[in-house]
Amino acid sequence: MTDAAQTGSAVEVAVLLDRIATLASGRGRIMIGIVGPPGSGKSTLARALHDSIADSVTIPMDGFHLASSTIAGSDREHRRGAIDTFDVEGFVWLLERVRRQGRRTLYAPDFRRDLDDPVAGAIAIEPHHRVVIVEGNYLLSREPIWVNVERLLDETWYLDVDDDLRRERLVQRHLLHGRAGVDAEQFANGSDERNAELIAMTRRFADRTVWINSSGEVAWSR
């Protein structure tokens, strides 16, 4: 990444932090949704924000993947990451509790890539967590039950990125986690790409958009 791109990213995070501070001013807990297609950098952005906000916690939608054993032998096994391979009821239920039960410690699952499965109770949402960052692919979906996610969030940001960069990231991710070269490319350009097309259709529902080009430079819709 170029120095200019690094500077742009740093400035962008500062702008996003300012926006969060504005939303949080004079309020209790706020919930920010970061949404985008696979490989768009949602987890990276969520981590950068979390590292910069003392009283924050991140809830990844990926923690609600159905377990490998649950979908083994079904058609969903070969298209994991599609919208029907998540426990949406459990996801919405947790977000409702996080929104309404701010005085209790709650627990969220996380997704362990080394296990390729979710792990229950891995993330503690404490009463002092005033900023909750929720990141995932389908936060803006209008499908049944999923449509309830957006109403629980104070603001949603759609993370857009150059498609070539996004696909390259996905291939590298699949290679890192054990897929063979051809299989990694086929999954990134097959199942992942179909999911990305579905997610892109929800972009218009986001409150704001963060754009990232192939050089890592960032722009922000205010």
Give the SSE map.
Elements: H1 3-24, E1 30-35, H2 42-52, E2 56-60, H3 68-71, H4 88-100, E3 106-112, E4 117-125, E5 131-136, H5 147-151, E6 155-161, H6 163-176, H7 181-189, H8 191-200, E7 208-212, E8 218-220
Parallel strand pairs: 1-5, 1-6, 2-5, 6-7
Antiparallel strand pairs: 3-4, 7-8
Plain-language structure description:
The chain is of the alpha/beta class. The protein is built from eight helices and eight strands; from the N terminus they run αβαβααβββαβαααββ. The strands form two sheets. It has a six-stranded mixed beta sheet. Strands 3-4 form a two-stranded antiparallel ribbon. It is globular.
Count every helix, treating DSSP H or I runs of 4 or more residues as helices: 8
Could you give a short account of the major beta sheet? 6 strands, mixed
Mean pLDDT over all positions = 85
- Overall 3D geometry? globular
| Relative strand content | 15-25%
SSE succession: HEHEHHEEEHEHHHEE
- Any idea what the radius of gyration is? 17 Å
Separation of the first and last Cα atoms? 25 Å
Helix content: 25-40%
Widest sheet, order of strands? 2-5-1-6-7-8
Can you tell me the residue ranges where pLDDT is under 50 for at least 5 consecutive residues? 1-8
* Structural class category: alpha/beta
Number of strands: 8
